[in-house]
Amino acid sequence: MSKPLREIYNQSFFDLLQQARTVHLQHWNGKYIQLCSLLSIKTGGCSEDCFYCAQSARYQTVVKSKELLDDDEVVAAARAAKELGASRFCMGAAWSGVREQTQQFEQVLNIVRAVAALGIEVCVTLGYISESAARTLKAAGLHTYNHNLDTSPEFYPNIVTTHAFDDRLKTIRAVQQAGLSLCCGGIIGMGETVDDRLRMLEILTSFDPPPDSVPINTLIPMPGTPLENEKPIDVFDLVRLVATTRIALPRSKVRLSAGRTLLSREAQAWCFFAGANSIFFGGKLLTADNPSADEDLQLLAVLGLAPNRAGSNCDNGKRAS
Questions:
Q1: Which helix (DSSP H) or strand (DSSP E) does residue 185 occupy?
Q2: Do the strands 284-285 and 288-289 form a parallel or antiparallel pair, or are they unpaired?
Q3: Can you list the alpha helix ranges (DSSP code H) found in 140-280?
Q4: For residues 210 and 183, what is the distance between their CA atoms, to the nearest angstrom?
Q5: Which of 243, 280, 316, 46 minimizes the C-alpha distance to 163?
Q6: Which residues pair with 91 in a beta bridge?
Q7: Three-class secondary structure of residue 110 per DSSP
Q8: With 85 labelled, which of 31, 55, 120, 310 sits at a CA distance of 20 to 30 A?
Q9: 184 annotated active-site
Q10: CATH node for 15-306
């Protein structure tokens, strides 16, 4: 893990926040937050053993498996999200990967085309894919592919055993070579060290181009999973990571993702000040609870922030939203 990242992270708290805020305002309009909506289009029954995930078929959880949703149901959800202010609609499917020339892949392509026709950014997370599949998705109207690193390569075997960290890197390379925007971040609070978090961030900074968006998830311990008894992280650790991410990746959106139900409004405000400029909103994130859209819009109003609507610009004149 690089010395510069450690030095940035270990500054006094207020010096770190001041630096992060300065960097943020150099690249982004500080008044706007990107709202992203997330829908599980295929739930449960995944063959992988990710220790944090309630959708793994290997664990006894409350999640019930559901087949791929119909196009009309997904489009209706996307339209409703856009009307509430979402500029990106993300769809997740619980499987290890998707293959071309299968009925599932063709159905996903139809969904992507239909959602893209609404004039909203379309993002999917489908597990491992080839460059050819990524190019086909892009041709259908896909804007962004999400594939998180989750954690450092050193800690990765402690949370997943059914695939390797390098498998994630292969999909990321395929996505970028296909010309898709990349959404890539991780999860904190799984028992990893601060160095693991910074090592993950170091790898993110090595991507060319950098990720379009970096989701920072805090673990929601799901009953029935191997990590169900993990303790919540310290809020200041989260804010420090958000600030360090903003400094290290000044032109990437930094997204507060899973775990916001565990944060106070004040803690979220600190994260926004430190450089987070995107959230997932709506009452559900795949299988985990999330603040309601009304709660989020009220919080943004109190803070003098506003959603950047689809097609709007929130970048301080230097970068498209």
A1: none
A2: antiparallel
A3: 165-177, 194-206, 235-248, 265-274
A4: 9
A5: 46
A6: 39, 124
A7: helix
A8: 55
A9: no
A10: 3.20.20.70
Cα separation, 218 vs 127, in Å, equals 20
State the catalytic residue, choosing from 36, 53, 184, 314. Answer: 53
* Given the residues 36, 88, 168, 183, the one annotated as active site: 183
Active site residue 46: yes
50 tagged catalytic: yes
Q: Is 90 an active-site residue?
A: yes
Select which of 36, 90, 184, 271 is catalytic: 90
pTM higher than 0.85, yes or no? yes
